[in-house]
Specification:
The protein is an alpha/beta fold and 480 residues long. It contains 14 helices and 23 strands. Strands 2, 3, 4, 5, 6, 7 and 8 form a seven-stranded mixed sheet that branches. Bound molecules: S-adenosylmethionine and iron/sulfur cluster.
Length: 480
């Protein structure tokens, strides 16, 4: 399992660190002579979603997915560059893959995603046994690169594009609970947060054709899915011009279009940016029962000087105003965050401002990291990474403790409340219990009764809690 420095208090589906390195696959019928690919994915939900686009491209040239490295003719690792440790983990995995290649000559190894983009041909020079290196905008070139690699050419394509959205590619769903799926709505990022490598590895922001998004979400619904998460680095800046009508579709319009697919299809999205989330989006969420009352709105720091150094383009007052707007327009909406501690020159007082912000905003959960300097970023060029590792780790622990307490209190406040939940699968601990999620993105566990099935909605009354889960029992739908 991936050992990043992120610390989670809860598990959500958008950036689930527990899934790092997961080998996505689905069982297919064995066909004699068919080639198989094995793919491991690291990083954010966007990478997991990209792996499904890659699977679709590979399927068209005759490859089937496998979860067994030993059975694979092609081993792919879809990489993340966001923190140094993420890259170290991938390097270790490549060593292991290379051992496998020595035992099974002819197996090809490919590096995909952000690390491929960041290191480019250096990858082929440094990691001698990598056969292909493919950046996030070049997956359509995979079949060509594979043909070359089979003939002994080591291939690379890391060209970034201003247009590529893979809009016409129907992803092969590798990640199969069959209930919730990711739909990518845009690629790249035009923000220049000083700590972040994403604008360099994923290129310029571009929005995908709104109709292709609705079509993909509808297809998921028709195939039994009951929840889609719309993905982008900054979903609130989604903007697509209809080439025929010349009218623009913004993010509020897009979630409304998706909400109309079916009242039984839940809509989630990630990630929202505090500078861009509009009241129009908030009112749209409030208007539709099937747009979930949960917003991931990363604050990064609670101190305005640090936010300025981070180039987040908002200050703590602006962030608080956005939180107030959410609470006013969508009562009961839960909010989660990303936080970086120990950023360049952060003082103890500024660190305490972050703890105060966590408490003030009453985050349901946060993804918390200590700062990891990334080569080429604005911060790496302009500021000294001067907070000692010990201090970074101590501060991280302090924010984790503050967040854990809040998560527990938030769950405690749910005792005796009744929620509509979507059943995602069996509880991890017992096959006599269901695991389900409410609109607020809280996980509920309850005993199986009434012959329910995965993908069904039902109502659950909360009886007890811990800091990660609500424990309850199924009840009749309450009269409103
Ligand atoms: N686009 C999203 C946003 O602006 O909130 C975040 C995308 S990034 C993939 C996910 C998170 O990783 C960021 O919100 C940030 O907290 C964290 N992160 C990014 N760069 C980092 C760095 N250099 N060191 C530590 N954490 C970092
Ligand atoms: Fe990185 Fe900032 Fe873009 Fe998020 S908004 S991907 S943190 S540059």
């Amino acid at each position: 399992m991936y050992d990043d420095n992120a610390t989670l208090v809860d598990i959500t589906k958008d950036i689930n660190e527990k899934r790092q390195g997961e080998a996505l696959y689905f069982e297919t019928q064995k066909i004699a002579g068919q080639k198989h690919f094995y793919i491991e994915s690291y990083g954010c939900a966007m990478n997991f979603s990209d792996s499904e686009i890659v699977a679709s491209i590979l399927k068209d040239v005759g490859y089937a997915p496998t979860r067994k490295i030993e059975d694979s003719d092609l081993i792919l690792v879809n990489t993340c560059s966001i923190r140094e440790k993420a890259e170290d983990t991938v390097r270790k995995r490549l060593e292991l893959f290379n051992k496998h290649k020595r035992q099974r000559p002819g197996t090809l190894i490919g590096v995909l995603g952000c690390m491929a983009e960041r290191l480019k041909s250096k990858f082929l020079e440094e990691e001698k046994l990598v056969d292909i290196v493919v950046g996030p905008d070049a997956y359509r070139d995979l079949p060509n690169l594979l043909l070359g690699a089979e003939l002994g050419d080591r291939g690379i394509n890391v060209l970034l594009s201003r247009e590529e959205t893979y809009a016409d590619i129907s992803p092969v769903r590798l990640d199969g609970n069959g209930v919730s799926g990711f739909v990518s709505i845009m690629r790249g990022c035009d923000n220049m947060c000083s700590f972040c490598v994403v604008p360099f590895t994923r290129g310029r922001e571009r929005s995908r054709d709104a109709f292709s998004i609705v079509a993909e979400a509808s297809e998921l619904f028709d195939n039994g899915y009951r929840e889609v998460t719309l993905l982008g680095q900054n979903v609130d800046s989604y903007k697509w011009e209809n080439p025929e009508s010349k009218k623009f579709v913004n993010f509020a319009n897009l979630i409304e279009m998706c909400a109309h697919i079916d009242p039984d299809l839940r809509i989630r999205f990630s990630t929202s940016h505090p500078k861009d989330i509009t009241d129009e989006v908030l009112y749209t969420i409030a208007r539709y029962d099937n747009i979930c009352d949960y917003i991931h709105l990363p604050v990064q720091s609670g101190n305005s000087r640090i936010l300025k150094l981070m180039n987040r383009t908002y200050d703590s007052e602006w962030y608080k105003e956005r939180i107030k707007a959410i609470r006013r327009i969508i009562p009961g909406c839960t909010i989660s965050s990303d936080i970086i501690t120990g950023f360049c020159s952060e003082t103890e007082e500024e660190h305490i401002d972050t703890i105060e912000m966590i408490k003030w905003a009453d985050f349901l959960m946060s993804y918390m990291y200590y700062y990891s300097e990334r080569p080429g970023t604005l911060a790496a060029k302009k500021y000294e990474d001067d907070i000692p590792l010990e201090t970074k780790k101590r501060r991280l622990q302090e924010i984790v403790d503050a967040q854990r307490q809040l998560s527990y209190l938030s769950n405690l406040a749910d005792i005796d409340k009744t929620y509509k939940v979507l059943i995602e699968g069996e509880s991890k601990k017992s096959n006599l219990e269901w695991r389900a999620r409410n609109s607020n993105n809280k996980m509920l566990v309850f005993p199986k009764t009434n012959n329910r099935k995965v993908g069904e909605y039902c109502w659950v009354k909360v009886k007890s809690v811990n800091s990660a889960t609500l424990i309850g029992e199924e009840v009749n739908q309450p009269m409103i």
